[in-house]
Specification:
This protein has about 150 residues and is an all-alpha fold. It contains five helices and no strands. It has helices at about 1-45, 50-70, 75-95, 110-140, 150-154. The radius of gyration is 19 Å and the shape is elongated. The two termini are about 20 Å apart.
Length: about 150
């Protein structure tokens, strides 16, 4: 009897940990989508191409979040990390060098939605990158190229 409990302990702990990580990522990705949705009307008015980039980020964030709700898919984790890292890079670029036809944002580091966006995107990127690195380490230690999910790795 104790052998069964010991064997199921790590599995339960892993499932709980995976569920928490996925929930954090899903809420964060929804936050990224919401922040950019709130900023989109003004952005479309001033710089339409940037508004369409927002639409792409919103759709990508919700797609990755939907995939993570269903299962812990490494493509969704990688997509979440890439989307958020890309949004952070675009924010920094727009505040330093400036985006084409949008020099108004240069030096505008204290915009509240921008700061909220950086916080949420940074958190999601950190969580998603950590999951991807862990899966890569597990796959490498087993001589595999790819681990579809941590459930398969344990």
């Amino acid at each position: 009897m104790s052998t069964q409990l010991e064997a199921s302990g790590p599995t339960i702990a892993h499932a709980v940990r995976d569920g928490i990580l996925r929930a954090v990522a899903v809420v964060g990705l929804a936050g990224v989508a919401l922040i950019h949705l709130l900023d989109a009307p003004g952005t479309f008015a001033s710089t339409p191409y940037k508004g369409w980039l927002y639409v792409g980020l919103i759709v990508g964030s919700l797609t990755a979040a939907g995939a993570l709700v269903r299962r812990s898919d490494p493509r969704a984790w990688a997509g979440a990390a890439a989307l958020c890292a890309g949004a952070i890079l675009a924010f920094v670029y727009s505040r330093t060098v400036g985006l084409p036809a949008s020099p108004d944002d240069i030096g505008n580091w204290a915009e509240p939605l921008g700061l909220a966006s950086l916080f949420v995107e940074g958190a999601v990127a950190a969580v998603a990158t950590a999951v991807c690195v862990e899966r890569l380490a597990v796959a490498t230690s087993r001589g595999a190229r790819f681990v579809p999910s941590l459930e398969d790795a344990r």
